[in-house]
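Methods — Computational structure assignment.
A single polypeptide chain was analysed. Its primary sequence is given first, followed by the predicted tertiary structure written as structure tokens.
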Amino acid sequence: MAIAAHMLVSAALHALQLDTGVMTTGMETTRFAVSTSLAAFAVYLPWSLIEAGVSTHVVWGVWAICFGGLCAFFIITCLGLFYEHGILNENALEFFAGIVTVILGTACTAHSFIPGLCVAGGPGLMAQFPFHTVWHLLSSISSLICGRSLDRLLQLTEVMEARIAAAGPAAKQKRKPLYIRMFKDALPSQFSM
């Protein structure tokens, strides 16, 4: 899980570096250090909570938030870059399916981090329905979609690198980050009022 999160964050950072025009000699080292640090934090924070004797429900919730945050960063970056480069329409249904499977999968694991929701051998649907099995199914679907998105992002990164190499030094000028440009586009302008 940590290696997958590292790969996703590293690919997203690389694409953002290319999109913003950050072409320094240490960009690979920075990308590696940031993605490795975030993945290590997502692994060792829950581990340290386990060692400290914190409830398993809390540890499970912290683990889900840590890795969910890393995956959310990747997906938001993909959505922004795919939109900016005009390839979001051909991937929109797949992104929607991935988001739905993540939400449904989280609902199927709610019994794992909400104390008392599922009592083994007890009455009720939560104790009798194989929610964990459904979570594995939904997780595998969302992992497939995430892998396909990673592949598309890496292909887009290659295209961006080729454009920069073909344009020469003039294309290496630094641009404002994608999130800032999108935020400005979302705000109403003085002319639209």
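Note: DSSP finds eight helices and no strands in the chain.
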